[in-house]
Amino acid sequence: MKKRTNNRGNRKENTYFSFNTYLIIYAIAILIFSALAVAFFMSGDAWGILFLLIALLAAFIALVSPLYFQFSYKSVTIVYVLGDRESIPWTSVTSVIQYVSWIEQFGGFPYYKVAYGHKKQKFYMNGEITKSRKNKKLIEKFYGGTIL
């Protein structure tokens, strides 16, 4: 857990960073399916198109995923791979909901959904924090309520 202290005047603010470890899985998937696509294209088989499409899908998902999360006593900031930032003040958070099993809901990996009042942003900026032990610990530390 990386801790950074900012000294601005008389106040100290502790900031914690958490990397999105799911990006490693996406990178491995991109490499595997790209290699399979090249192998099938070299042998003249049409299955290479399918593997190329799967690799491109994994690359797209990785591009719109969060890169890291920045937790502080004031807010949580989600920084995306494309450079966008979504800053969520803890005072505006109404609830944090845990989506546990990706098998049951046919979605992606497990995540926490931070519900807060916000205006329409880009389609991938929706207050989702990847589920990990570190993120759970940081959410419990900074968010006053319980995770549903």
**Large-scale geometry:** elongated
Rg for CA atoms: 19 Å
Low-confidence stretches: none
**Oligomeric state of the chains?**
single chain
Can you summarize the main beta sheet?
5 strands, antiparallel
- Report the average pLDDT across residues: 87
Number of strands: 8
Q: Count the helices. How many?
A: 4
- Widest β-sheet, arrangement of strands: 1-2-3-4-5
Report the helical percentage. 25-40%
> Helix/strand/pairing class, anyone?
alpha+beta
| Beta-strand percent range | 25-35%
Q: Which H/E pattern describes the elements?
A: EEHHEEEEHEEH
Q: How many angstroms does the end-to-end distance come to?
A: 24 Å
Account of the 3D structure:
It is a single chain. The chain has 148 residues and is α+β, with helices and mostly antiparallel strands. It is 35% helix and 33% strand. It has 4 helices and 8 strands; from the N terminus they run E-E-H-H-E-E-E-E-H-E-E-H. It has helices at residues 22-42, 47-63, 102-105, 133-142, and strands spanning 2-8, 11-19, 66-71, 75-80, 85-89, 93-99, 111-116, 128-130. It has a 5-stranded antiparallel beta sheet, with helices on one face. A hairpin with a 4-residue loop joins strand 4 (75-80) and strand 5. The two termini are 24 Å apart. The model has no long low-confidence stretch (mean pLDDT 87).
